[in-house]
Amino acid sequence: MKIIRMFRESAAELKNLRCITVTGLLIALSMVIESFTINLGFAKINFAFLALAAIGMLYGPSVSIMAGAVCDVLGYLVAPEGGFFAIYTLIGAFQGLIYGMIAYRRLPKRTGRAYDVEMSFRLVAARIVDVLVINLVCNTAANYHYGFLRDRTLGAAIAARVVKNLLELPVDIVLIAVVLMAVLKAYQSVFGRQRTAV
User: Fold this and answer.
1) How many Cα neighbours within 13 Å face the side chain of 69?
2) Helical segments of 110-192, H only
3) Which of 78, 94, 147, 164 would you label with 194, given CA atoms 20 to 30 Å apart?
4) Cα separations (Å) of 196 from 4, 125, 147, 181, 193?
5) What is the rounded distance in angstroms from the CA atom of residue 137 to the CA atom of residue 135?
6) Tens-place pLDDT, residues 161-184
7) What angle do CA 24, 101, 134 make, to 5 degrees?
8) Domains of the chain (ranges, CATH numbers)
């Protein structure tokens, strides 16, 4: 079955020192990006998802699940706000799963093209799923459950997050098209790694 094979191949990446090193660097980059978060009160704007998306694209769901959980725990340790809630760590892992499932083993064979449109579409699709499932549903529900949104109803909280995400999504798409494609090109140039679709 393709999904089981994808998880096995991704888990095998963890035996590779290159995977551990690049993943560690991308997690560190995620922490740096996270430090530039803009807090709007009802929502936060940051682009740390780019590092997690790159991990999912390069190393798959097994690695990106762990990276998502590690990013959440480290993010809390670096800038603790209130108590630690394990549900957010699970949400971070689930976010990593989204990028790993959609983008892994989809790296193109080298064809001389400087840009891969299919990979861009896959990453944009992953970001849209991330926004719909993680940002709008999981995070809003967790925030509401833990009383972080006491001053508003669940419907008002979701409406505010919809507006925030609709405003942010075009910027996210441009960043995916520019930054993640540059990461992919650099990775293939440095490591000469070629993959075909599963």
Assistant:
1) 11
2) 117-129, 140-145, 154-175, 181-191
3) 94
4) 17, 19, 46, 16, 10
5) 6
6) 888 888 889 999 999 989 998 998
7) 80
8) 2-191 (1.10.1760.20)
